[in-house]
Design brief:
The complex is a heterodimer of chains A (264) and B (337). Helices cover 27% and strands 30% of the residues of chain A. By secondary structure, chain A is α/β, with parallel strands linked by helices. The termini of chain A are far apart. In chain B, helix 8 links the parallel strand 16 and strand 17. Classes of the chains: A alpha/beta (264), B alpha/beta (337). Bound molecules: flavin-adenine dinucleotide and adenosine monophosphate. The site of adenosine monophosphate (AMP) has 25 residues of chain A, from helix 1, strand 6, helix 3, strand 8 and helix 4.
Chain lengths: 264, 337
């Protein structure tokens, strides 16, 4: 059997964001959380791979607060087999190194994965570091920016990586970790039977007592980085907006502006 | 872990693409120079590649005091484990206080691997780097949550302090032809060149010479461009301005433009000098990827389009009429000069 893990994260929803007219910054409603949109592609790709293989099993793994179970259930409703929530108050405050440490410890506990999928980046932290860090801590190769899986056979996975200026075809031996980009597929909408199944599926919680991780490696104390300060940049600009009489005057005005800024 | 006093010097990880030193390597040196001057420490670059020794000399002109070069046929293509082995060996031997790389697909792959091996912190996609002179510490500032929040981050105790910086967040220094430096050619034993990866081939992206993240000028189109054919005008304009074409998500989803051109939350984040949006509404998910551009111009039929809120200059009008007029105008201008 091929065992596949998908790492997913629950993030603040991006749909309900609005601009604050006064401060010019984005406002997010604090209550809404969703499955990281970029992780849907990882979930979908795992399911597509499973559909091609004769015998495969997909486990979703997420580290986060108890409500992250919702994101795990969503992935299960799309077609993953089961899920685990890595959750403990002591994991709080983790940076990418310590998050990856904790996730690796959980993955080691669950043992035996041939492939691990993750998203390109989470839309809140936007680092894209957790995947490569998990792979390194588990001592496996990592294929980043994957836009296509070409072949998966005889212990080798061949992929197309989208890099600057083109696509690179690379192979790695398994077990391996793969971070996918949006280009790779079109995630499915869960159907009714998937939703029913996910409701019934019990999602075990892996807390600190269930994984093998010393307390100085997890949470804030396991994080080498510290946030010094947070500030909110003004996104809005006080630019002039003109209504041009016709296309020619518009072009003239654009040319004038570009010249004044040294673009032309 | 060793105490931070043993570590000193600012290192940049040069980037080799198709056998050439990529321009992001020079941008990194501009950041490195600022940091090393404040710290009064040395500025060094690392270059891993094949037939790269001679070309590495150029890094001196752009500010490097020293360049560590590993030149080996096995480095012709990027195999992450080999690069990580060599970087790790260099860092462990020379102990730099700071190591920065570009937030390209290369930097964003190799740096988290390296940071995990060295068990140190890593801050992604910084747009500002500075030194806290009291603590002699690197301050790494980066946008998060779609540019909604800026966070300044430090790595107080563990060395090296590592960060990737966004391409185009700083211009390279003017090259100083008279400046020289020390080239340190390193050789390593064959076990560091063992790899679990195999590189097979590279297929050039027909639609772009320059990746959008590394372009000074981006001419972007949205659904208001109405069709694939009309994007040709954007390509024409971008060529005149030495830029690249960007796109909103629906235009990518409809197949008008390849995904590598998508800007926003689920595409690329860009910081060009000049960003021009034609027929883009300015949804929050798009703005997340372009709001830190230096100059933003928008053309949209709808006077209430949110894109105007982030624009330095806006024109309310039909992009499909204004674009041809602008192309004609600029085309003419060029011929007259
Ligand atoms: C999870 C998630 C992730 C997303 N990620 C991204 C992302 O990465 N990038 C992204 O761009 N979007 C993203 N989106 C989609 C985003 O919400 C918007 O739907 C999208 O940006 C709109 O694209 P648009 O401006 O081209 O189209 P529209 O919103 O349809 O706007 C078209 C604009 O063109 C104008 N127009 C029409 N005709 C003309 C004309 N002839 N001349 C001039 N103007 C004209 C209209 O007035 C309108 O303002 C994401 C959404 C979600 C939910
Ligand atoms: N807390 C988490 N739990 C599970 N997976 C995660 C977590 N954080 C990040 N990931 C995975 O790592 C990817 C990159 O996240 P990030 O490095 O935070 O941008 C995400 O798309 C997820 O697949």
């Amino acid at each position: 059997m091929t065992r596949i893990a998908v790492l997913i994260k629950q993030v603040p929803a991006s749909d309900n964001v609005k601009m604050d007219e006064k401060t010019g910054t984005m406002i997010r409603s604090a209550t809404d959380a969703e499955l990281n949109p970029l992780d849907m592609y990882a979930v979908e790709e795992a399911i597509r791979l499973k559909e091609k293989l004769e015998n495969a099993h997909i486990s979703v793994i997420s580290m986060g607060p108890p409500q992250a179970i919702e994101a795990i259930k969503e992935a299960i409703s799309m077609g993953c087999d089961d899920g685990y929530l890595v959750s403990d108050r002591k994991f709080a405050g983790a940076d990418t190194l310590s998050t990856a440490y904790t996730l690796s410890a959980a993955i080691r506990k669950l043992e035996g994965f041939d492939l691990i999928f993750c998203g390109e980046r989470a839309t809140d932290g936007e680092t894209g570091q957790v995947g490569p860090s998990v792979a390194t801590q588990l001592d496996m190769p990592v294929l980043t920016y994957v836009g296509k899986i070409d072949k998966f056979k005889n212990g080798v996975i061949r992929v197309h990586r989208s890099v600057e200026g083109g696509k690179e075809v690379v192979e790695a031996s398994i077990p391996a970790l793969i971070s996918v980009i949006k280009e790779i597929n079109e995630p499915r909408i869960p159907n009714l039977s998937g939703k029913i199944k996910s409701k019934k599926t019990l999602v075990p919680i892996l807390d600190l007592s269930k994984i093998d991780a010393p307390s100085d490696k997890i949470g804030l104390s396991g994080s080498p980085t510290r946030v010094v300060k947070i500030f909110y940049p003004k996104l809005s600009r006080t630019g002039k907006v003109i209504k041009a009489k016709n296309a020619e005057t518009a072009a003239n005005e654009l040319e004038k502006f570009m010249k004044s800024k040294g673009i032309l | 872990m060793m105490s931070s006093e043993e570590y000193s010097g600012v290192w940049t990880l040069g980037e080799v693409r198709n056998g050439e030193i990529s321009s992001v390597s020079y941008e990194l040196l501009a950041w490195g120079k600022k940091l090393s001057e404040k710290l009064e420490e040395r500025l060094s670059s690392v270059v891993l590649g094949h037939n790269i020794k001679r070309k590495s000399q150029e890094l001196f002109e752009f500010g490097a005091d020293e360049v560590y070069v590993v030149d080996n046929p096995k480095l012709e293509h990027f195999l992450p484990d080999i690069h990580a082995n060599l970087c790790e060996a260099l860092v462990r031997e020379y102990k730099p206080g700071i190591l920065i790389a570009s937030a390209t697909t290369y930097g964003r792959t190799i740096m988290p691997i390296l940071a995990a091996r060295l068990k140190t912190g890593l801050t992604a996609d910084c747009t500002e780097l500075d030194i806290d002179l009291k603590e002699h510490i690197l301050l790494q500032t980066r946008p998060a949550i779609g540019g909604n929040v800026m966070a300044t981050i430090k790595t107080p105790d563990i060395r090296p302090q590592m960060a990737t910086v966004r391409p185009k967040s700083k211009r390279p220094l003017k090259p100083d032809k008279s400046k020289n430096g020390k080239l340190i050619l390193k050789e390593y034993s064959s076990d560091l060149y063992e790899s679990r990866y195999k590189w097979l081939s590279f297929e050039k992206d027909e639609s772009s010479d320059l990746p959008i993240q590394e372009s000074d000028v981006i001419i972007a189109g949205g659904k208001g461009m109405k069709g694939k054919k009309n994007f040709d005008m954007l390509y024409d304009l971008s060529k005149m301005l030495n830029g690249a074409v960007g796109a909103s998500r629906p235009t990518v989803d409809m197949g008008w433009v390849p995904y590598s051109h998508q800007i926003g939350l689920s595409g690329k984040t860009v910081t060009p000098h000049f960003y021009m949006a034609f027929g883009i509404s300015g949804a929050i998910q798009h703005v997340a990827g372009m709001s830190s551009s230096k100059i933003i111009v928008a053309i949209n039929k709808d006077p209430d389009a949110p894109i105007f809120k982030v624009a330095d200059f806006g024109v309310v009008g039909d992009a499909l009429e204004i674009l041809p007029a602008l192309l004609k105008k600029l085309g003419k201008g060029e011929r007259n000069e």
